[in-house]
Amino acid sequence: MTTVADRPAAEERLTPGTPLLEVRDLHVEFKTRDGIAKAVNGVNYSVSAGETLAVLGESGSGKSVTAQTITGILDMPPGRVTAGQILFRGRDMLTMSGEERRRIRGRKIAMIFQDALSALNPVLSVGYQLGEMFRVHEGASRKEAKARAIELMDRVRIPAAAQRVNDYPHQFSGGMRQRIMIAMALALKPDLIIADEPTTALDVTVQAQVMDLLAELQAEFQMGLILITHDLGVVADVADKIAVMYAGRIVETAPVHELYAKPAHPYTKGLLRSIPRLDDKGQELYAIKGLPPNLYRVPAGCAFNPRCEQATDRCRTEVPELHLIGDGRASACHLWKETLHG
Ligand code: SF4
Fold first, then answer.
1. How big, in percent rounded to 5, are the helix, strand and coil portions of the chain?
2. Atom of ligand 1 nearest to the CA of 266
3. Contact 306 CB / ligand 1 (< 6 Å)
4. Residue nearest to atom 7 of ligand 1 (CA)
5. Residue located nearest, by CA, to atom 5 of ligand 1
6. Is the dihedral of CA 247, 296, 64, 29 positive or negative?
7. Which pLDDT tens digit goes with each residue over 13-71?
8. In ligand 1, which atom is closest to the CA atom of 334?
9. pTM for the whole thing?
10. 6 within a domain of the structure (yes/no)
């Protein structure tokens, strides 16, 4: 029998490093009664086969809006793409026909959400929901679809998959439901998976297990993976590179180890200081002061200036460009040198 692992290999195996997705100068806004919220302001990032990009930021940073634009969830008002390109394997998804975009989004790009319980249908068994992917997209018979659902459940390490295939989503723990979401995302062997806060609702131990599983499957299938998170602590071991977003812009991007060792933006530095460490038990945890800006009234100059301990007068008037600072790194801070070497 064809297995999950060898079926896609026979069709098309991605070569590591093949460019998959490139977001170019993307601008997205929301028109509401309160005015226009500029949610994404000129975002650029890319991910290749076999590569994991972590996109990091607090809520309102634009990280999820960018992902939702890629997957097409924001195709309708009040969200609107005002400029930019989303190139998937070299072709701009924003200029494709609706049908073509749907095909890519159904088969080539899969999404994993934070809340598996609301993403899964509560009145259908998980086996039925997994099998449906094969029935609808590949014309599999019911029997074959069920066998492949069990195989997928096994692959994401759901214990006793054959016995649990007819269980409903609420009969699984949060961690197991998230594994089922991963199995659904994997079912059609996409080129790219976008995981939006995939472990946020889980406790720390389960978070690590789910993250390890994602990393293992990604390496095995050589997919691209975009991991969207507010938690710098969960991506250190799995990401290749990180893009840090603030108020709709990328403020720092770097290979993961360089960013952890020497951040080049005060916001990243603050996020790193906020990660709890085992060796500072009893010490009060650092928190960046203030709140992210209201997107209807982003501060002049550097949007981070009201919260930044290094802000100068220049920061309050001049928007910092994203400077290339070498070694595949970039920082949008007037004082990136001082921050990097400070
Ligand atoms: Fe802070 Fe100024 Fe750098 Fe913005 S540009 S992060 S306010 S030092």
1. 40, 25, 40
2. 6
3. no
4. 305
5. 333
6. negative
7. 678 888 999 999 999 999 888 889 999 999 999 999 999 999 999 988 999 999 989 98
8. 5
9. 0.90
10. no
